[in-house]
Sequence to fold (301 residues):
Amino acid sequence: MKIAILSRNENLYSTRRLKEAALARGHQIDVIDTLHCYMDITSNNPSVRYEGRQLPAYDAIIPRIGASITFYGTAVVRQFEMMGTFSINESVAISRSRDKLRSLQLLSRKGIGLPKTGFAKHPDNISDLIENVGGAPVVIKLLEGTQGIGVVLADTEKAAESIIEAFMGLKANILVQEFIKEAGGADIRCLVIGDKVVAAMKRQAAAGEFRSNLHRGGTAEIVRLSKEERATAINAAKVMGLRLCGVDILRSSRGPVVMEVNSSPGLEGIETATGKDVADLVIQHLEKNARPNATRTKGKG
Ligand code: ADP
Ligand code: MG
Fold:
């Protein structure tokens, strides 16, 4: 097959591993810098151009779109979809996953376990908002944060009110969420490919920290999933329309609850913690599933 990875930097661990895995399985692979792609969308023969030439027809693309380039990155993926190229994750699904509120709304519609979550624009109903998710302590999140930045734990009602007021004053979009204390600063990252969880790790927050992000000093180890956790992760991926994703779950007293679904999951942490060759499994998935004009959404929401 002829495969392209859309990535800003070919030295990043995940990009490097995917390239190695594709080569090892006898495929041709190009790493293309997403922001240097440009598009011809006026003609009825859509194409993507790169470094002064039209890109060849690929059998599949693997988009690795960072959160800071979602708008342009998804436009590039959409352009490939218009050309009939198979993308392991569709542009619409990537856009959905980048908005925590939109993701939670989609997941709740399908009855997937979630932390109780509220969202509001105006400061006149803050106390009801806090009460509705079970009262303090609550977690307050910026809608488009990543790597734990923009996620705050408010211990008391007073603290929660002033943090929410401050965020609202800055016109930031926020979620107010039930704090799952019993998770003990740990979450479970389930790496889903197609309809399978191929690897799972438990991330534990550093001492004195409730956020388990590896970027915030968390540590990771392999974990055995319960049947319910496995089914929850697979369902969440399906609802989001993602074939490759990381589903983050908290172990709550009422069962697994999904915190977020990441459409460009990093491979380094999970391959190191589990010893699984996830990159090879991604390429195997493309071998079995990549075919032209298979995009379900065709760029439509
Ligand atoms: P980000 O996108 O920045 O990673 P998350 O929503 O994943 O934001 O939150 C970061 C971390 O904070 C999570 O990995 C988890 O450890 C912790 N956390 C987030 N929400 C909750 C919650 N409702 N209850 C308990 N811990 C939470
Ligand atoms: Mg997270």
